[in-house]
Amino acid sequence: MEDIAAYIGVDWGDKRHSVHMQTAGGVIEHCELEQKPDVVHDWVAQVKQRFQGAKVAIAIEQRKGAVIHALMMYDFLVLYPINPKALARYREAFRTSGAKDDPGDSQLLLDLLSKHRDQLRAWVPDTVEARTLQLLCEQRRKLVNHRVALTNRITSLLKQYFPQALDWVGDIASIQSCDFLMTWPNLRAVQRVRQDSLRKFYHRHNCRTAAVIDERMAQIAKAVPLTSDPAIIEPLSLSVQTYATQLRSLIQAIQVFDTRIAHVFAQHPDHDLFDSFPGAGAVCAPRLSAAFGTDRSRWQSATDLQSHSGIAPVTERSGKALWVHHRLACPKFVKQTFHEFADQSIRFSPWARAYYDQQRGRGNDHHAALRALAYKWIRILFRCWQDREPYDEATYTEALRRHGSSLVENFA
Fold first, then answer.
1. Under a CB-based contact definition with an 8 Å cutoff, are residues 178 and 251 in contact?
2. Last residue of a domain, one of 214, 233, 264
3. Which domain holds residue 244?
4. 207-236 pLDDT, tens digit each
């Protein structure tokens, strides 16, 4: 373990950061920093000059955010992100009352780092390209969550006054749907439109099946409103138009993210490796590569990643009682990545489908079966990642046969 000239605990805040520092002589100092880039960088420069560029360890209760983004620029700083739950448990050990304040937390972070550094893992930043891909994927997922919320809201509103629109707009999360609802937010508006205009609208949005268009126009012509109360129709129509406008912008933004992710992922050194997995596709393959990173020493075994991601179950014992449950304290985006990849894989991999069906047959629900499948996939992903070899379905299927797996009989 490398020598450390000083230990620092930082409790970050929106406006001010509390800092406790302990030098090699054991002297503890305290100061506060404003949340301003020039203040933070000036402080780092002073620390570097004081210890002549020697390594300085910093414990901070975050893995992302403004402070981490500022500190990661300096190679003489060794960063130790501390899980908020770990700090909370450490705080409870000394303050059973539950009292909490920023200076106290920075001092606890310093104490945790100086006394238990051998139990903590230093944060080693990945390459710029890998971190760019990771953040692009995470931000895209947040936009997708927002898109789902908007489509659910629009669907709920339409059911209250204009339910027929759900059959006429096509996919609710599409540009066609947004343009339809922004132009004709209620039944009266769409029934006043000429059929030629409706037909051109559908053609313009690449809906060219004559039978589908004719059926929709026939339904529009004879449709009866759910309600004729203007006190309901007008407010809800305006709301639907507003949400449809937001949804349209969101859909276009996701498309921009998809284009950028595809470009960055194409340059990734492990592109062919992660792209080879069944069901990974344009969405899951970049997310899988972001979850693993490019540093092969980051994970010592597949078990490390299974636990870190939250896919591995947690076993608890107390006296004679023992129970197993899925892990809650974990990086949600990483866990979601493996969970969604497992869901996609059962559509393209025979053995994955057989394993999923086997888990459902044992009484596990859909999500428990996917977690079990993701647990197996991580072992395979990890081996391919370590060996830098793309996945081959035939090779894995042959391995199952050699070991006499019952899965082979189920999908043969």
1. yes
2. 264
3. 130-264
4. 989 999 999 999 999 999 999 999 999 999
